[in-house]
Design a protein that fits this description.
By secondary structure, the chain is α/β, with parallel strands linked by helices. Helix content is 39%, strand content 16%. Helix 1 packs across helix 13 and helix 2 crosses helix 3. The chain starts with 18 loop residues before the first strand and ends in a 9-residue tail after the last helix.
């Protein structure tokens, strides 16, 4: 859980926040929140995925914080947010509502971007009053709403019961990941990233993922195994862009296509050739650009002249 495990220089080194705060969720869970960029700038909220942390968004934070107020938080049990016994999609939704309430002014709207489990967080919160009060638009990266284990292609086998059974055990393993070694990097790259991912991208992802406590990794794997948020997709009634990598083995593009078809206001489906599951790291400029486009299209910036 230490930031010392993260890369220390380059585009994937976590930038220092302008300030930090703690959001308290409905069940008392405490969430570490970082705020980057100038006060009064258009707001962007970033929700990371399973086994990651705010460090996962380093490239987006670094680029956007020049002219946006970027709010990134650690999901419960990840990064600097303490573990909590309650782990469910309802808890994820509670947490996002708590972060929005703590970091945004009443009625202030933001573009909310979620990667993997972060996208599932956004879907889980879609019908919540707190979410609807603050969400101007959404970006869903490398995510799905159901059937995650059955659709995964991490194991190169024919689809069916055996692959699903084995995938469940691989993803839900209690085994420690250990230090970041050359073998560990190769395994992580195969499972989560595209074949052309640069070594510094793989290194950044490996350090982040290996920092996640194994008990937290296992507990949340069970939640993802049983995920069923198809109904929640239809409640996501704001303009939403969906991004997927064609080489994503954890959430293959079939998920993104299903989301795009079900969303009430799909604002685009982008499939990235050769990119894997870690889209914000593997294609940082594109993901950042999509966030900027959504801000420009859907957040009204109040100036002294227009006030």
């Amino acid at each position: 859980m230490s930031r010392l495990l993260h890369v220390g220089s380059g585009p994937y080194a976590p930038p220092a926040p302008a300030r930090e705060l703690t959001a308290v969720s409905a069940d008392g869970a405490r969430l570490h929140v970082e705020i980057h960029g100038p006060e009064g700038a258009p707001a962007v909220v970033l929700a990371h995925g399973w086994t990651c942390s705010t460090a996962f968004w380093a490239a987006q934070i670094r680029a956007l914080a020049t002219d946006h107020r970027v709010i990134a938080y650690d999901q419960r049990g990840h990064g600097r947010s303490p573990a909590h016994p309650a782990c469910s999609t309802d808890a994820l939704a509670d947490d996002l509502e708590a972060v929005l309430g703590a970091a945004l002014a009443p009625g202030e709207q933001a573009v909310i971007a979620g990667h993997s489990m972060g996208g599932m967080t956004v879907m889980a919160a879609s019908a919540r009053a707190g979410f609807r009060a603050h969400a101007a638009a959404v970006l869903l990266c490398s995510t799905g709403s159901s059937q995650l284990v059955a659709a995964s292609t991490v194991l190169p086998m024919r689809p069916g019961r055996l692959r699903t059974w084995l995938t469940r055990r691989v993803l839900g393993s209690r085994a420690p990941l250990g230090p970041v070694t050359p073998l560990a990097r190769r395994i992580l790259k195969y499972a989560t990233m595209g074949p052309g991912s640069a070594p510094h991208m793989v290194e950044a992802c490996a350090r982040i993922v290996h920092a996640c406590p194994r008990a937290v990794r296992h507990t949340w794997s069970n939640v993802l195994d049983l995920l069923d948020l198809d109904h929640a997709v239809r409640e996501l009634r704001v303009p939403t862009v969906v991004i997927a990598g064609t080489a994503d083995r954890l959430t293959p593009p079939v998920h993104a296509r299903a989301l795009a078809a079900a969303l009430p206001q799909c604002a685009g489906l982008v499939e990235l050739p050769g990119i894997g599951h870690m889209t914000p790291v593997e294609a940082p400029e594109l993901v950042t650009g999509k966030i900027r486009e959504l801000v420009h299209a859907h957040i009204r910036v109040v100036t002294e002249e227009s006030a």
